[in-house]
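Complex 511.
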Amino acid sequence: MCVGIDRRSVSPWGNPRKLRRGLRGAISGFLFFLIEKSESFCVASQRKPACTLSKALPGKIFFGGNAQYDESISSYFYIQERSRPACGVVPTSSGDVSVAIKLLAKSGSPFSVRSGGHASQPGASNSKNGVIIDLRSLKEIKLQKNGAVVSAGSGAAWGDVYGALDSRGLAVLGGRDAHVGVSGFTLGGGISFFSPQRGFACDSVTNFEIVLANGKIVEVSAISNQDLFVALKGGTNNFGVVTRFSFKTFTQGQLWGGAIVYPDSAFPKMEAAFTQTKQPKNFDLYQALEASFVYLGQSPSFLGVASLFYSKPVVNATSLKPFTSIQPQLSNSMRLSSPVQLAREVSSLSTPNLSSVWATTTFEISPTIISRLVSIWKKTARSMTQVTTTTASMTFQSIPPPPQITSPNVLGYSPFSSPQKDQVLMLLSTFFEDAAAYEDIDALTKTFFAAVDNAANEEGVDVKYTYLNYAAKWQTPLKDYGTVNWLYLAAISKKYDPTGVFQKKVGGFKI
Ligand SMILES: Cc1cc2nc3c(=O)[nH]c(=O)nc-3n(C[C@H](O)[C@H](O)[C@H](O)COP(=O)(O)OP(=O)(O)OC[C@H]3O[C@@H](n4cnc5c(N)ncnc54)[C@H](O)[C@@H]3O)c2cc1C
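Predicted structure with flavin-adenine dinucleotide bound:
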């Protein structure tokens, strides 16, 4: 029996002895055996308050030592996120999430909210010795309003959503990697194949279903809890657990897309090509590209990769020619394909089960900034090798356009600005097998970003925006949305979570 807290005060079904008798009569002996088994794990895990969950949600709690626990932990994409919680909850309905949140809020136990498990910041979606709410069973996808809207359970991945829309010739402003979770991606902004034309993914949400800290399940949209609707578009896990998202769909045929790999001798041409495509006069809203300067930590040391997408079925789109014309090419997978196939290809190229440090910054394009940063990057990449063998990629892409004035988000871009035309988002992601090297690689990354920010400052092109989904733990993306938005987030948190459960007990970027 768990004695961490007085269960009478938390069990939604009252007296636990009566509950036990009721359960004996009502459920099969096998299910009761499972509950008893969970209790023995409760004892083994030092009677954490969180273990009361096994009473309230029988069969939906896992503890260390069982296969479901191991599967859940090992399914986090990166090693640094695989800490060991006391137990996990696998809700199969928003009602289950509500029961769990009420108990966890009362118990004071730390907990985490996990969907696709792709966060790179340690502790963002896992909770060492706490409780994880593993939402992956909430993955129902439904078309609504004759296909104009798709609703997705918060445990779905983008491949599930694209897959459900594909045969109807529809798409959604989703991730470029099929395995990335709908939830974390959308709540942090979300950059898609379609972003240059349609903005951040969060701006295509028409409704969130969310469980608040008091366990209430509420609908959030432009007409219901409107202030929270704005805050959820960039405010990540600070207000509750989202259990369902509804997104606008759009008609979408094939895209022309893929990746071209170049030897490092092509770096100067890639730098020039990226700088050219970022001239406002060359902006093409159908073109989405990422230019990556990749360090392999072995010979050959560096490679260039251009991930190119054109959201119309136009082979050899003119605006992508600065990249497609670069020679020599080591490989080229450009072809006409559907969003789901391209997203699956992107995920097949992403390697899980490694440690990884991510960090990001934003700046305006200048004639020299890209080549300057590539040169700083080459030195940093080599110094990382002295710590451990790494593969690392410095990637440049565009900031998506801001939302319309009538449907704001909290990301900080004015509806009258056009960052998609001249601002650059840079991501540095470093991958390595030696988990013990994490702190050293993180420190080198921090030093590198100080040099990058210094270079951007010297050129007068620095922009104070930090994309949350790419940010390192030591970065401050919510604060960097600007003081007005930051204070707004704080006020909304106070209103919907007055005791600060999601500020104090849940990991991730806090207000
Ligand atoms: C291989 C790879 C490819 C990527 N590709 C892209 C890309 O194309 N574009 C892009 O913009 N980003 C991309 N990202 C970054 C990605 O958007 C973030 O890592 C994002 O946080 C992942 O969401 P998730 O649900 O998978 O992660 P999780 O680790 O499950 O969650 C991330 C954060 O969101 C919170 N959260 C999750 N679910 C909920 C919920 N239901 N309610 C409240 N809070 C919740 C968690 O608590 C956590 O803090 C990529 C990342 C990887 C590793």
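The longest helix spans residues 438-458.
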